[in-house]
Amino acid sequence: MAVRRSDPRYIAVLAVACLVILLVGFAVKPGVVPEEVVPASASDLPQLARYADRRMVERIAGHFSYIATQVEESVVLLAGTGQSGVVWQAGEVVTSARLGPFPARDRTALDDREVELQTSVAAPHLPYVLLKAPLDAVVSGRSPVRLYPWGSWLLAVWRSSAGGLRYAPGNLFGVIERRCGEAEVLEVLTNLELGPAQAGAGIFSLDGGLVAVALDCAGTLIAVEVGALELQARSEAEAQDLLPQRYGMRLAMAEEDELEFFRQEGGVIVRETWWGHRAHEAGLRPGDVVLAIDGAPVSTLDDVGSLVLPVSRELFDLRVWRARRTLRIRLQARPLAEAAVSTRGFVEPQDGLLLGPVMAGSLAASTGARPGDRLLMVNQKPALAFSDLEDAFRVAGGQVHLVLERRGRMWGTLVRVDE
Questions:
Q1: How far apart are CA 144 and CA 152, in angstroms?
Q2: Structural domains of the chain, ranges and CATH numbers in brackets
């Protein structure tokens, strides 16, 4: 007999069977399987390393940019010379020396205004130039190199010719003593690439301290430690002899052998002049013996003191002895205002005879000459050919007076032919 689907017993049995099926299904239901982490393959590792390196480089570059903006106001552009300078003391800017005389004045932007700077210390034998700045100028904090270990990061900061801020990172590898012209400096060894565009750049530590300044040393730009440089600059700025700064010349009492050679009984001799400076422009040359200033006889260095006193006149009238005759020299007493920022003297002088290799212990070496120097005068006459020097050696009575030039500095020396 067929079972009716509406039979209560049938329905109850069916409900019990469904319940059993649900309970069994819930009991055997699998848990949630976590997503499997697949290790990176060997081919993926370089890409991950590059990604990590890029993130690290971005962080470092961002920090360099931050340091540059922190010291930005301490690095200025000198409009006249087109090179950078560092405000390293209230009222003072330091920059790199250059070939030829530095202009008596320059201009820069400080605190969003253009101001005039006055050159206070500049000479061919120094690798740096100091300029007077407004007293409210921002001052760079100093950081002695000895405080930083080998490999420390450094940041060179300078201005482009348009005035924009530029910077480049490098590392510190110690310091060494180095001679630049007549100045002893401490060179900061670094892998910074310093070229003409970086002249006068400030070199800072990553805590914003000024470590060095990029200065020209015999035609090569180097990082010069600021501690020793400051001590030297202070001594130069306080020197009593103002003749080099004002006229670009050095005077000294003539020695006995010089007096005998020039046939004078006494006097003050011009030891050196600097190309393009007032003494050179007036016609003074190394080896000239100053006889009188404005008619007053000159026999000692005290007699030339009038040259450095404040004056209202335009010219000094000098009588000098050269090549066994008396010459009249008109020396400019004050710089001309219209020549305050001038290009005169910035062209390398090409007069004279170019010297090649200088043998150690030779006559040329005894004069202090180096390869690349120029021989300008022999016995106070222009040197037109090396045969002039040979002729002087043959006919001289034991001594020859030479005038040589190196990077705008001209000096005279009396040498013995038998040396």
A1: 13
A2: 72-237 (2.40.10.120), 252-339 (2.30.42.10), 353-416 (2.30.42.10)
